């Protein structure tokens, strides 16, 4: 398997074609953006943390029955993945109020929600990833009803598995974002699971161990990424 030309460069990752049409190489960058690209910066070695953490979680989820695009780690910053077509819908899962939910609904950040909240956004940078519901998804033809059912099922299962695992590491999984892809006629979990896409809070102190430290200029960003990786994979 040979790494060929770059197909796509996103805000945090690059995707390369390979000599196998069914496989891509994903390379994780240190570039960080927030507020739909308005704030830009670098988080040193973030690419390494996010690559290793995503690989670890994808493997764990695959073992527990959630299909993912992950094939194997190639290097510090690279993983081999299935060549999927991303469904242009982001799934947000929330266990605690934070970020845009707190702002929108006036719920104090850190409040435990009475039940898990699942939201959808339309993955579209120009529109700023607007919130949508299942009818919008169907009306716009973004995914079929059956696909949405599977996506919701997998998302809630990911939440259960990760929440339980992270609590043992004294981390609260406040909320996170997932993306799915189509591989043949199957839906598989894709993108990444990292401090860029999850809110991780220290279970004792509620200290933030994720990208909010960058978004909100809190300092200690690199340290938080390293700390959460250390706790998650025990390094
Ligand atoms: N999130 C993400 N990418 C996005 C939007 C949200 O990874 O484009 C993650 C974010 O890190 C958080 C969760 O999804 O863990 C919920 O994000 P929220 O809607 O609160 O948006 P934010 O406050 O990050 O703008």
From TrEMBL:
Gene3D superfamilies: ATP-grasp fold, B domain, Phosphorylase Kinase, domain 1
Record-linked CDD domains: SAICAR_synt_PurC (cd01415)
Reaction equation(s) it catalyzes: 5-amino-1-(5-phospho-D-ribosyl)imidazole-4-carboxylate + L-aspartate + ATP = (2S)-2-[5-amino-1-(5-phospho-beta-D-ribosyl)imidazole-4-carboxamido]succinate + ADP + phosphate + 2 H(+)
Entry keywords, A to Z: ATP-binding, Ligase, Nucleotide-binding, Purine biosynthesis
One Pfam family here: SAICAR_synt
A GO biological process held by the record: 'de novo' IMP biosynthetic process
Membrane-spanning intervals of the chain: none
Recorded metabolic or biological pathway in which this protein acts: Purine metabolism; IMP biosynthesis via de novo pathway; 5-amino-1-(5-phospho-D-ribosyl)imidazole-4-carboxamide from 5-amino-1-(5-phospho-D-ribosyl)imidazole-4-carboxylate: step 1/2
Record-level Gene Ontology MF annotations: ATP binding; phosphoribosylaminoimidazolesuccinocarboxamide synthase activity
Enzyme's top EC category: ligase
Residues in SAICAR synthetase/ADE2 N-terminal domain copies: 7-231
EC number from the UniProt entry: 6.3.2.6
InterPro entries reported for this sequence: SAICAR_synt/ADE2_N, SAICAR_synt_PurC, SAICAR_synth, SAICAR_synthetase, SAICAR_synthetase_CS
Keyword Phosphoprotein attached: no
Entry's family note: Belongs to the SAICAR synthetase family.
Protein name as catalogued: Phosphoribosylaminoimidazole-succinocarboxamide synthase
Organism lineage: Bacteria, Bacillati, Bacillota, Clostridia, Thermoanaerobacterales
Gene: purC
């Amino acid at each position: 398997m040979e790494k060929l030309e770059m197909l796509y460069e996103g805000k945090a990752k690059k995707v390369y074609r390979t000599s196998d049409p069914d496989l891509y190489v994903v390379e994780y960058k240190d570039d960080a953006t927030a507020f739909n690209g308005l704030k830009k910066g670098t988080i040193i070695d973030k690419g390494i943390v996010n690559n290793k953490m995503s690989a670890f979680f994808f493997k764990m989820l695959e073992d527990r029955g959630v299909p993912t695009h992950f094939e194997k780690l190639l290097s510090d910053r690279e993983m081999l993945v299935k060549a999927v077509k991303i469904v242009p819908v982001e799934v947000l899962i929330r266990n605690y109020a934070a970020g845009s939910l707190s702002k929108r609904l006036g719920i104090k950040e850190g409040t435990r929600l009475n039940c898990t909240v699942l939201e959808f956004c339309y993955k579209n940078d120009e529109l700023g990833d607007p919130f949508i519901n299942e009818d919008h998804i169907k009306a716009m033809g973004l995914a079929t009803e059956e696909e949405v059912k599977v996506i919701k099922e997998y998302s809630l299962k990911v939440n259960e598995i990760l929440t339980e695992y992270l609590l043992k590491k004294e981390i609260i999984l406040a909320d996170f974002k997932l993306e799915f892809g189509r591989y043949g006629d199957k839906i598989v979990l894709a993108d990444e699971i990292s401090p860029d896409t999850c809110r991780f809070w220290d279970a004792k102190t509620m200290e933030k161990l994720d990208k909010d430290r960058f978004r909100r200029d809190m300092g200690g960003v690199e340290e938080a990424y390293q700390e959460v990786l250390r706790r998650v994979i025990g390094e």
